[in-house]
Specification:
2 copies of one chain form a homodimer. In chain A, helix 1 packs across helix 2, helix 4 runs antiparallel to helix 5 and helix 5 packs antiparallel against helix 9. The longest helix of chain A is centred in the middle third of the chain and has 25 residues. By secondary structure, chain A is mainly α. Chain A has 2 domains: 47 residues, Homeodomain-like (Arc Repressor Mutant, subunit A), CATH 1.10.10; 122 residues, Tetracycline Repressor, domain 2. Chains A and B meet through helix 6, helix 8 and helix 9 of A and helix 6, helix 8 and helix 9 of B. Chain A binds a DNA duplex through helix 1, helix 2 and helix 3. Chains A, B: Keywords: DNA-binding, Transcription, Transcription regulation.
Chain lengths: 187, 187
DNA sequence: CGGAATCCGGATTCCACATTCCGTATTATG
DNA sequence: CATAATACGGAATGTGGAATCCGGATTCCG
């Protein structure tokens, strides 16, 4: 009913513009974080504000699209690390990867904090992330690098803290990870 | 020159109002964090907006006043812990106290993050805090509960993360402290 | 080509707040 | 008390920024 067969192919410029917007938004949010303005995004994408709003009906929608993208990347890497059975990688490698990403993406570090916290309605991707983390923990446990009692929730907290440390430049985040990892090791 | 001897005593009601405002603001910011409105503060204090602004010429000024107050309390407690040479207290006790305070004061946990990060112009109190933390670390080091290489910066990071964990309800913050403390212990 | 169907741009509307202004009310002095 | 000095309240103003609207430009399709 919502698809009258009289449907033309989506205009090519429309599609192109959508990509432009996403790309520009990604760059802007990565550099300046949550407080870039819609008009700035539009300008950077070399697109009218109207267009921007047709693609993403809401500021929030735009941010979500970007975040989802980055999150998916992270999950992908995590899964790779989980599969490769390299002792030098695993949980440690994952945390460092997250740190690396957040360092170059201020907006993401702002989002991660919230996402790792309260069980928000951030569906699929969040689930996927939790799953991989759980797997990483299992492997680490077997290998003896983390205690039996360590949970995915613990790692969540660590990541939440990591994001804050990076976002506020509160110190050397690699050192933070080191400390956290030591803290998770079996007694 | 700025004190023409023709100076009456400050009106008593003025003084009383200032207290009311501070008290109301404290409560409001503690519960709702950074986004309470000036008008709400005024209403809660049962005072006109104009008055509120005579006491604190700026939203920021108000927040700063509140934060400074809380920070001073924390420093005081910290110093007490540092003096009491109770092994069960010290650094651990301090972190738990901070956690307790932040749990009941959302606004503060928002501020702490920033303050612990970038060497902002938050003068005296910040200095004092750093000093006590340093002292707590020294004692802990002597007692052997933290490694030789642990610095005040490390504790800063931990606190910054703690604030984030609490603010986002990302898990059990007592557990977080436990992990952090374990991570700081000597090898 | 021709003319829908779609999409664009960006001025404009709306809204949520901080901050200012000023006429009125209250307090301290003599 | 009288009166100057202060303080008060809260409507009015200013501002920043998201979201809407619509005449004009483009693109698709026969």
């Amino acid at each position: 009913m919502s698809t009258p067969q009289t449907r033309r192919k989506t205009r090519t410029d429309a599609e192109r513009n959508r990509d432009r917007v996403l790309e520009a938004a990604r760059a802007l949010f990565a550099e300046f974080g949550h407080d870039v303005q819609m008009s700035e995004v539009a300008r950077a994408a070399d697109v009218g504000i109207g267009t921007l709003y047709r693609k993403f009906p809401t500021r929030e929608a735009l941010i979500e699209a970007i975040a989802e993208h980055r999150a998916a990347e992270i999950v992908a890497t995590a899964r790779r690390l989980a599969d490769t059975d390299d002792p030098a990688q695993g949980l440690a490698g994952f945390l460092h990867h997250v740190g690396e990403v957040l360092t170059g993406d201020r907006g993401m570090s702002e989002v991660i904090e919230k996402v790792m916290g309260s069980a928000e309605p951030r569906g699929e991707t969040r689930e996927a992330l939790l799953a991989v983390v759980a797997e990483l923990i299992d492997r680490a446990r077997v290998r003896g690098t983390v205690g039996q009692d360590v949970t995915a929730g613990d790692v969540n907290m660590v990541i939440c803290g990591l994001a804050a440390v990076i976002r506020n430049a509160a110190g050397d985040w690699r050192r933070y990870i080191e400390v956290a990892l030591d803290g998770l090791r079996p007694r």
